[in-house]
Amino acid sequence: MTKCRHRVFSNQHLKRMEEIMRTVCADFEGELVEFNGEDNHVHLLVNFPPKVALAKLVNSLKGVSSRRLRQQFPDVARHYYRANRLWSASYFAGSVGGAPLNVLQQYIEQQNHPT
Asked: Which residue ranges run through the membrane (predicted)?
């Protein structure tokens, strides 16, 4: 979620963010299985090895996406809150080892996109 729930992302921002996050996940030997987002947050379904610390992965996803979006879309910088932070420090992560993958993908696909 963005800092202070600012409405930041357009479809163009989300498309680029998905590319960035796919690269970050691959750097951690993981896979971004599904991505979707709205104007102030994103939903990710990530498959990553148990040797990867979740907090480090999330920190990298937020940090890299924040820097690259700011570089490529200078207009986004006006939404950065104190200390140039785009993202809130919080996140939600859930383990879904028993759920069928197609159910999770369908849930994420059905989340609203900004217009």
From this structure: none
Domains assigned to the chain: 3-109 (3.30.70.1290)
Q: Does residue 77 sit in helix, strand or coil? A: helix
User: What's the confidence (pLDDT) of residue 17?
Assistant: 94
Give the pLDDT band of residue 51 (cuts 50, 70, 90).
very high
CA distance 13 to 17: 6
Which is nearest to 9 in space by CA: 34, 45, 41?
41
88, 2 in Cβ contact below 8 A? yes
- How far apart are the C-alpha atoms of 109 and 78, rounded to whole Å? 29
